Predict the structure.
Amino acid sequence: MFSYYLRLAAISLKRNRILTALMVAAIALGIGMSMTSMTVLHMMSSNPLSHKDELVRRVQLDNWDANRPWDEDNPTEPPDIMTYQDTNNLVNAHKAEYESASFSNVLPLEPEKREVKPYMVEALFATSGFFPIFEPPFKYGSGWSPAEDRSAARVAVIDSETNDKLFGGENSVGRKVHLGGEDYTIVGVLEKWNPTPRVYHVGNGAFNDPQSVFVPFSIGIEKQLNSNSNNSCFKNSEPGYAGLLASDCVWLDLWVQVKDAADAQRYAAFLNDYVNEQKKSGRFPRPLNNRLRTVSEFLEAERVVSRDVRTQVWLAFAFFAVCLINTVGLLLAKFMGKAPEIGLRRAVGASKPAVFAQYLTESGLVGLAGGLFGLVLTGLGLLALRKLYAGTSIERLAELDWSMVFASLAIALIASLIAGLYPTWRACQVQPATQLKTQ
Amino acid sequence: MEFRPILNALMRNKTGLLLIALQVAITLAIVCNSVFIILQRIEKVNRPSGMDEQSLFTVTSLGFAPDYDLRGSIRQDLDTLRTMPGVIDATTINSVPLSNGGWSEGLSILPESVPEEQHTYVPSSLYMVDEHGVNTLGVKIVAGRNFTASDVTARTKDDKGSPNVAIVTQALADAMFPDGKALGKQIYSGISGKDAPVTVVGIVERLQAPWVGWDKVEHSMLIPQFQDGEFDGGSARYLIRTEPGRRDEVMKQAEARLGAINTGRIVRGLHSIEEVRGDSYRQDRAMTIVLTTVILSLLAVTGLGIVGMVSFWVTRRVKQIGTRRALGARRFDIRRYFMIENVIVVGIGIAIGLLLTYGFNLWLMKHYELPRLSWYYAPLGALTVLLLGQIAVFGPATRASRVSPAVATRTV
């Protein structure tokens, strides 16, 4: 029966090509527009640590100015980065399963091979907890140990691209890399790794690529380096690097991993005790206001999803709504134009459900065709977005994936069926007698 | 006018009417708000930075050799750059305007020893340049003087060697000294050290801060200071102004020359300010293009939708039209009938659309910190969709007017 309906629908759609083309084009445009923006939104709102979202927590302490909140527009928000002294104290206290403190800066890299010119790499200065928390995949070797953190051992983990460049992709564990005038022993080589967003540091561009070299946090401090991302102070510190370390300036990312929900509560209580203890020495003039956010809560609070993209999604769906209303109108026009035919079919014995099924099949067919063309438009739309946003984070996000392909087709089909419901219902209301009379 | 009969006929086809009206309404709301966003972005992108953008480029040098002499290297680089043919001037600078990365300070007119509550901090971006900075940037001094070679200090790691003079933008001067007498006044900031003020010796007309999205983008202060290389390893950034039209040629030569005179460092980050501007405003540009596409597609869909619906109505009414023609209606009358019908339908759509437009705007104001829609957007938008409706209906209406009166005499 269904194949018969399909055949009838195809004949009917062919009879009025312009109207059919209009309907398919409207749905295709609507799908293309909304899926293009949805794809970008979908990528932006992804969470690479979703499998342990509850366990990985961002530490935020409110050490800011007594008179001015960290964020004037959002006065209840504590700073989203940390001071050196608190980071250092919390890492040393080691009350969580793992702690990852980090900041980034650039270092000159002088390759052994003479033919490769010295170049700059962005290095992440991180504690050993970084690797178990963010789980970058290792091709060779592994991260370093807490003991190497403490001794500021000259060890490094490099990414696969750097390994290809310096060692032709061989297992380079145990070999040396010359960074900032010193030799570092390579302990690990990563596979290609591109967490989206780059959860561990969203400060200056949540969708930037990860650093290419990872070295112990303590080396950065020993070399008296700052973060090349954000540094904020609310009052003048004592001069020099020692002054910065002892100050209330914030510049570090601190994440911890806990065992379970109860452990997270215990850790939160520990943070409160810590801040109360610090208050005794005159720091933390603001009311107790710590956060121990999960990854998803932190990404939400940091507004990782660009507002422009959100606006585009809303507009695209409003656009889609217009396209659907359009389709309802055109289907209605079309089906009502067939009143005599429907009347005839009803008179010769077709039941209402049969007529209903047939016309719904026709709307579904329009939707499917619209969805397919819409998919092509989505592909073109994403291509255009990649061009428009070349060099920005959005460029990397404008990639079609299978879930979006299926979503587009499903949405097109469902939307067209919904759009077809009213016209189809109206078509079923046709009285055979009146139609036959005028014939 | 046959206004009443048209309305009566329309009321017998409420669904069709409602569908077109709804489309028109949403179209109006989207078009008004999108055009509003687009014009705002265009305005933002077109703000002048105050610099001679077309002739400027920047380059960074980073020393890695163990015996690398930063001070000596900076001096040598600047001498080399300034004497190159086609170069007007060059300076060291800590960050480049329009680049979205830089240094900001809270400035106060009171020393730090004064209790915290009495301070009003005015945020400003800070550019550290030498006595060639003003000429290199191409900013215009409207009051006071430029830096001299003796003003320029070199900051060391323990904060010694702070400058004691500054040049501020007009906007910053007005914000700090509303009485308009900024020249010669003293400003306290972290950069000058505790309780050591800098004196305002000059005011420039305009110079943007590095952050193009900042609401105080014209708050900038220039101080005469060598960029402190010790903090960030041996790095130095240069800004170079060339003769008009010679920028690209000079850029290539400068990179080669800097690389050749000192092999103990890496020369990188060679960018024209035009490129820097393009990068900073890329998202705004992209947004305007995306929204323009949305608007145009939307108008097309709505227009074609009207064509489709009216064509259908015409087909259904062929007999009526024929009868009217037989009874003496001119072609013009028939066409007018459909045109007026369209005005009514679109008019209803506009009425709903105005509500949607302001609703959408309120929502954008709340969630995206957009300002209120200016009053003229809605009427102009309404006029646009009205025109769109008339254009869309013209074809089917003309076809209707060609229906022969003889149709009335035929039975189907």
Notes: The two ends of chain A are 28 Å apart (CA to CA). Chain A has 16 helices and ten strands.
